[in-house]
Design brief:
There is one protein chain. The protein has 485 residues and is mostly helical. It has helices spanning 2-9, 17-33, 40-55, 61-83, 93-99, 104-108, 128-142, 156-169, 177-182, 193-210, 218-231, 254-263, 267-278, 285-288, 291-313, 322-325, 334-339, 347-363, 372-386, 391-405, 426-437, 455-472, 474-484.
Length: 485
């Protein structure tokens, strides 16, 4: 037996098949021949220790041989325990591992190590019932749903992921959404079938929020795209044997989809999904792990995120907005343009209106008397501190504001009462901007519009707009500077 155990040491995830497969098959053959024999416990843990290698042999004969041997041993070792009237242990270490499970590959590493002499093992570790629990767990990791009797133990960390993703995807984040999403941005190394499925299902659930504009760090979207592309080679492009409606239905909301994806990533979570299917709702694990189903999800999520990167961080076309914000005589339609600068409206239309205004300001002759430049500059300052701008648009407006800042004076002025009332509402500020552009429209009530044209006030408005954008997008600006350097 010692000679065989020495061979097990070399069967790691990256081992050469011609060397590893005969060793794994010999261990599986011995266990299948005597699933409750004298060496059964040691043989079980030999296969469990070699399971990370088997995970990389999807569809190969060695996979089926190992799963069948582990399943037979689990049943036989449990039966031995029943015949003996129990083992006397209140619980077994494998359940502790299920409670602390992080990923399938890491979880398997918690099993007893066959390199340690068997007579030095803790009594509960070497208990046949503990071996039976590990046998079922490893079989489920290799081929999801192949083993019955796994406890419905969802790891505490996974429960926390479900709660926090639920709050984010329902748009009530408990903390910084970026942190909750970036944990799931990339797949685990050497994923099992179910871990791969769980990653794709969660990424698909998260992609809609990540691409909505609420997340302003491009790095998250880039990482998600890279992660999804990295798993596509593991998901062959082709038809499957499932009929219409056999794949999981994803119409219950992104939060429920994310929860299902997290459940796929642990043996206890998969037991929950199996119970749901047995109770008449939810899909079987075999459908959740279908490569055709998962590839479609991964491609859809990747493409959505690519579009979001272009929309949120790329250059926008605004020439088509000339007909919206210019009158037929070519003059500015200040009412329509200012209305789009009010917060809490259609975010895309508002930020594109802000970008159009900034670009028009940049195109106008800086030496001319045109008062249009003044109102456009004021609208830029309003957009910077009142609208939720995507990074690509904010970056371009920031560049225009920085250029404008070099042409505006600082210092003092004659407006002793200031240029605006304390805590002026955005709607009131916009109304003053409209009156400023409309001759004779000033009512004389409250603050007049004229102070808005004061060079000192314009300089203050520009500096405030610059500071707002630089503070909101500090991380993105610094990252871009690093890439440029």
């Amino acid at each position: 037996m010692n000679e065989l155990i020495e061979k097990w040491y070399g069967v790691t995830a990256g081992a050469a098949p011609e060397e590893a497969v005969p060793v794994v098959l010999e261990c599986a053959r011995l266990l299948a021949a005597e699933p409750d024999g004298e060496q059964a416990v040691l043989l079980v843990f030999g296969l469990v220790n070699m399971a990370p290698y088997v995970l990389g042999r999807r569809g190969a004969a060695v996979e089926r041989a190992v799963v069948d041997a582990l399943g037979a041993a689990a049943d036989a070792l449990d039966e031995r325990g029943l015949r003996a009237g129990g083992c006397g242990h209140a619980d077994h270490p494998y359940t502790d591992s299920l409670e602390e499970w992080e990923s399938d590959v890491d979880g398997l590493s918690d099993a007893p190590d066959v390199e340690v002499p068997f007579d030095e093992w803790d009594g509960a570790d070497s208990c046949p019932r503990n071996a039976a629990g590990w046998a079922r767990t490893a079989a489920d990791v290799i081929l999801p749903g192949s083993a019955d009797g796994i406890p419905e133990i969802v790891p505490e960390d996974h429960q926390r992921y479900i709660r926090r993703l639920g709050s984010v995807l329902n748009d009530y984040p408990n903390g910084e959404p970026l942190w909750d999403l970036e944990i799931h941005a990339v797949p685990p190394g050497d994923p099992s079938r179910a871990a791969l499925a769980g990653y794709v299902v969660v990424a698909h659930a998260n992609c809609w929020y990540a691409g909505s504009g609420r997340i302003r760090q491009r790095s998250l979207l880039d990482d998600m795209i890279e992660g999804l592309e990295s798993v596509l080679p593991l998901l062959p492009d082709g038809a499957c044997a499932h009929g219409g409606g056999d794949h999981p239905a994803l119409g219950s909301g992104s939060d429920q989809q994310a929860a299902d994806g997290i459940h796929l990533q642990s043996p206890g979570g998969r037991a929950v999904l199996r119970k749901e299917h047995a109770d008449g709702y939810g899909a079987p694990l075999e459908a959740w792990t279908c490569p055709t189903f998962l590839r479609a999800l991964a491609v859809e999520a990747r493409d959505h995120l690519r579009e979001a990167v272009d929309r949120l961080f790329g250059t926008r076309e605004t020439a088509h907005l000339d007909r919206v914000y210019l009158r037929p005589d070519g003059r500015l339609d200040i009412e329509s343009l200012s209305a789009r600068h009010a917060p809490f409206q259609d975010g895309t239309a508002s930020e594109e209106a802000a970008l159009w205004a900034a670009r028009r300001y940049e195109r106008l002759d800086p030496d001319g008397p045109d008062p249009e430049r003044t109102v456009l500059l004021l609208l830029m300052g309003t957009a910077a501190d009142s609208l939720e701008l995507s990074y690509g648009i904010a970056r371009e407006i920031l560049g225009i504001l920085r250029t404008a800042a070099t042409t505006l004076p600082g210092g003092a002025c004659d407006h002793a009462d200031g240029h605006a009332p304390d805590r002026e509402r955005v709607s009131d500020r916009l109304a003053r901007i409209v009156r400023l552009h409309t001759p004779g429209a000033d009512s004389g009530q409250g603050f007049a519009s004229e102070p808005l044209t004061c060079p000192v006030h314009l300089a203050e408005a520009v500096r405030k707009g610059i500071a707002e954008i630089e503070e909101q997008f500090e991380d993105e600006l610094e990252a871009e500077e690093r890439r440029a350097g």
